[in-house]
Amino acid sequence: MTWRLADIGRSAPGRRRRLAVLLLGLQACACTGDLGRPRQDFWSQVVAPQAGFWSATVRGEAASHFRFTDDEEQLRDRAWRFIMPGHERSIFQARISDLAHARILPAQAQSSAVSDYFNALTGGSYASQVSRYARLAEDANADRLLIGPFRANAMRVVAADRVRMRTAESSPQVAPSQIDPAFARVVENEGLILWVCERVGFRIESYRYALANLVVEMPSREAIRAERAIMALEAEAGPLCKMSLIGAFGERGQQPAGDGARPPVVYKG
Predict the structure, then answer these.
(1) I want to staple 120 with a disulfide (CB 3.0 to 4.6 A). Which of 5, 87, 132, 236 is the partner?
(2) Number of helices and strands (H, E) in the chain?
């Protein structure tokens, strides 16, 4: 039996669940490379991008067939860290997030439980509670150091998108067939920036939840260091989430929800 991609969105819940399990199995077969990133292979270079493009299209999200610029490629590479769970022991959620990053699954499939990080942090064996506080501070500091490069990268992409749209709207030399893919790419780029901002905020909440519960369970003077690391991360995240964007996301990227809620983040990874 042959399935059409258009049929997937209309399939029964049981079929959608089986499809999700199949995709998780395929993605789990992918080997990991440096820093836990998926190694470039047939899955990550061919299957995942095409499956993500068509899955996003079926969901009614903006999807552009344009090739990525160098800055757009780098933006997606830098975003991966923040989209993934904060702890490597969250294995199942890591698989879900990886599929969401590829747009095979929607961003809403990711967990929104702030307790996930704490559960992973305290799930293993440590010599003392100091190790847990140290890991929390290290994770927060690592995120803080990566936000600046991501923001600089995002600013270059937004600046290029402004030029892209001015040219597309004003030049008579641009074919009409290029207008929609160009706007879709701008929506994808802005959606990714907003998504990262949301996930950074989620990480900060998760870190604060973990710190509060660590103090209740295992009080330690090391909590001061962890608290300072979280505060520094929060200060660094502020400028990222206040970036001036074009405002394309939500305009034509996706139809507004019926209840007036903010549309889910969409982009092409």
Answers:
(1) 87
(2) 10, 0
Q: How does pLDDT run along the chain (269 residues), one tens digit per residue?
A: 333 333 434 444 454 454 454 454 544 444 555 444 556 665 666 677 778 778 888 888 888 999 999 999 999 999 999 998 877 766 788 788 788 888 888 888 888 899 999 999 988 777 688 999 999 999 999 999 999 999 999 999 999 999 999 999 999 999 999 999 999 999 999 999 999 999 999 999 999 999 999 999 999 999 999 999 999 999 999 999 999 999 887 654 443 343 444 444 444 44
Q: What's the whole-model pTM score?
A: 0.77
What are the structure tokens assigned to 209, written together?
Answer: 């939840």
Give the residue ranges of DSSP H helices in 59-125: 70-83, 91-101, 115-121
Exposure class string for 235-245: b at 16+ Cβ within 10 A, else e: ebbeebeeeee
Residue 6 to residue 55: CA distance in whole angstroms: 9
Domain map (residue ranges) of the chain: 64-241
Q: Rounded to an integer, what distance in angstroms lies between the CA atom of residue 229 and that of residue 139? A: 9
Q: For residues 246 and 189, give the distance between their C-alpha atoms in angstroms, rounded to a whole number.
A: 10
d(CA 63, CA 44): 18
